[in-house]
Each structure stands twice: as structure tokens, then as C-alpha cells.
RNA sequence: GCGGUCGUAGUGUAGUGGCCUAGCACAGCGCUCUGUGGCAGCGCUAGCGGGAGUUCGAAUCUCCUCGAUCGCCCCA
């Protein structure tokens, strides 16, 4: 029989986060946890799976999103369900389902975990990726917009990013946006011939998107285009002005980007994107982006509830940190400083017991019980960068002591067995 | 979903139709050295992404497929 060797591989666009990369992930999570806890955002867990409707309703039928880019499939029972492509609609669903409008408003929550999009994978765009999402529901005040931008900025600053750029814009609401769209479409129609092929199509499907087309010829056309900020209704205008005043007060390095828009309809008023510029001024993809979604709660069947949030792209941040070789926790601080080496059956049994005694004292100790030769154990200890090796063999076991080897100097000494834990405790401290 | 480029042990690579039973380096494991690490020597493990085809002969050419990457669409 010939055995067919099937090579297993991960699904397209799905990555492992290997042990060596965990410190990055951990650092990012810690930063987010610290920030959210300081600002009193509470953790919420929402399911990875939801009815597809939760997301498709939110996204609307404006784009390819539903049919092309959601990870959706049918259950055995025939329900159309979907792996979450982002957190916001799930959080909103939860807010509605649990009657959180009865809680003191605003409800400030944050969630974190894997999300899924059925895109063609690209750098910084994978089918499974980690995101954190901060949401403030039931708050119409511009101060919350400012606070959320501040928090996003804080997280990135904590992580060591130095050239953070914040772009903000306001895209109005149901009052003024339809009106603005008309003006915009009117303008672009008059210049139709100068638009790229895609934008001629966008003119019908999603005219706001023409504003961030990268084509040279569209750039020129849009330079003369009407800007959202000039066509906001009174309320939106006042709101945006106040948001900017907060940002000024907070001394955040923001710029207004009149071309910044969102693809989905539920967004209202403030939108922002935060990215990191490289030394040569190149901008990496957005590391965090968000804005107001005053219409979403109602859209999903709840009361009319203003809300604002941000999605923080953990995977992207991680990738960039690794690319820039940014610092994580110092390595030596992580690993144990003591290695327990054993020789012979009896000593091995006893050293497993000793290992537990160290554990009781919460002193980290490395071991390699599966190796027998002292040589390979010392070699292992060396690779781990451990300073102290406790050698426990036949001789030691019989006479009730243990040999301590200082890997830096090579000096060895003997410690009686009942004093080992205490003595090592002192060594590790110093 | 569309287009370009790419795919050799864990990693980095050599190899451009027969000198390939696929070479090298690093890593891993082991031995020299059954109670002493870092050095050295020796050895072992492990690979042409997968499948079809062309050919006397394929890592090398063709097609399909899977994956990666870059760009487009879309972007929550």
C-alpha cells in the first residue's frame, strides 16, 4: 500500500500567531486593556457567529459586502449565519437584545477577538484577523467622539508609535447627506468624462467613494469637488465644530481630510482614521478607524440611539510592530532564572517533587525531565539563558544536598536539600 | 471576484531538460564526552506545494489546482 501524504495547510488568508510572536499580541492587548479600564469601558464578549442579517442589515445593499465579502454559510437547520466581519453590529445587537437602554447611558463597552472577511488576502488584509472595538452607545455628545479618538491615540502611543496621524471628517447625517450627495453627483456628472472607469460606475452606486479614489485623473476632479464639511446641516456642523474643539483641547495631532468617507450608510457625522507614517512620510494602512453610527441601533430594530466607536486593527498593528522591530517585553524577565537538572531514576522522581515545592513558592523553574544526560540538560539551560542550574543526581539524592552551578562563572556550590527553596528565593530576588 | 509575479528540508538558498540517488548554510536531534553548557569534529532527521501532460528523460517546459505576494474591485 502506498501511503498518500496529504499536506495540511492553513486556509487561505488565515495565519497562526506563533509563540515567538505572542509578546507583540500581548503587548497590544495589555495596552488596550489598560486604556479601556482607565476610561471605564467594560469588557463584553459577543459571539463569533451571528445571523448574517445582523451584518447584512447594517451594511445595507450598497456594495459587494454581503454577497462577496462576508463569511456566511447555512447551518444544518437552514439558517444563514455569518462569522463576524467586525464587532459593531454584534455589540449593537447585544445592546438591543439585553435592553441596555435601561442602563445608565452611555453604555461604554469594548470587545476583542478574531474577525473574518472573505476578501482576497493582501498585506494587512487577511481572512481572519484580530480586532478590538470600543463602543459608546447612547451618547450624542461630541465629547465622546473626542474621547474615543483620544483612546485610540493613547493605545498607539503606548505601543511606541511615534508618527501617528489622525484624519477626521464629518459626513453628515440623514438630514444633510442626501442633499450633499445630490450636489456631489451633480458636480461629478458635469465632469463625467474626466473620471476613471470605476468612478463612473461609483457615480451610481456609491458616489461618496469617488472622493477617495487614487486615480490621478480623479484626484484632479475631486480637488474642485464640493466638500462634506461645507454642506453639513446646522446640527452636524455644530457637532463637528465641537469635536474639533475637543481635539484641539486634547492637543491631538489631527488633520481634517475632507475626502475621508465611509463605505457604509450607517455611519454619520464624525469619521476618523488613525495611521502611522514612516520616516519617509509613507502612510501604512489605517491602524484604527471609526466614527459615529447614530443610525445603526434603530436600523437593527432598537430605539433611535446615537453611538460612536472605533475598531482597532490588532493584526495590522502587530504586523507593523514586527516590521519596525519595535520593543516588546524584555526577554530575560520572562523566562525562569533557575533550571533543575536531574540524573538517574531516583533523583528524577525526587526532583519532580522538588519542582512542585518551587511552584508552591511561585518561583519559576525550568526543567527538562525528559532528557537524561547532564550534558544535554546544561545545554538546554544555556539556550534558555538561565543563570542558575540546580544539579540533582544520585550522589545528591543519597546525601541530601543539591549542587548549584552558576552558569556565568561556572562556580559550583552545595546546598542542603531543605534549604534549597529558601536560598534560591533569595538568589532570584537579587 | 479580476490581473501580474512567485512556490526547493523548519528557515535562508544552489540548481534553468540528463552531471540530482537534489548541493550548501543555519536551526533541531544525537554521538565523540553514560555527572557538567557556550567551542570543535562526526553523524542523523528533513525538501522540489499538489495533480495531470510533453519527453527516452522534468525541480527545470505546458496546463490545471492550492498557497503566498502585489495591484484592482470592495473596505466594516
Automatic annotation (TrEMBL):
GO terms for biological process: histidyl-tRNA aminoacylation. It holds the Pfam family tRNA-synt_His. The keyword Aminoacyl-tRNA synthetase applies. GO terms for molecular function: ATP binding; histidine-tRNA ligase activity. PROSITE patterns: AA_TRNA_LIGASE_II. Keywords: Aminoacyl-tRNA synthetase, ATP-binding, Cytoplasm, Ligase, Nucleotide-binding, Protein biosynthesis. It is found in: Cytoplasm. GO terms for cellular component: cytoplasm. Residues 24-332 form the Aminoacyl-transfer RNA synthetases class-II family profile domain. Gene3D superfamilies: Anticodon-binding domain, Bira Bifunctional Protein, Domain 2. L-histidine binds at residues 86-88, 117, 131, 135, 262, 266-267. Signal peptide: none annotated. The keyword ATP-binding applies. It catalyses: tRNA(His) + L-histidine + ATP = L-histidyl-tRNA(His) + AMP + diphosphate + H(+). It is an enzyme of class 6 (ligase). InterPro entries: aa-tRNA-synth_II, aa-tRNA-synth_II/BPL/LPL, Anticodon-bd, Anticodon-bd_dom_sf, His-tRNA-ligase, HisRS-like_core, HisRS/HisZ. SUPFAM superfamilies: Class II aaRS ABD-related (SSF52954), Class II aaRS and biotin synthetases (SSF55681). Its EC number is 6.1.1.21. PANTHER family: HISTIDINE--TRNA LIGASE, MITOCHONDRIAL-RELATED, HISTIDYL-TRNA SYNTHETASE. Belongs to the class-II aminoacyl-tRNA synthetase family. Homodimer. This is Histidine--tRNA ligase. It comes from Candidatus Staskawiczbacteria bacterium RIFCSPHIGHO2_01_FULL_41_41. The lineage of its organism: Bacteria, Candidatus Staskawicziibacteriota. The gene is hisS.
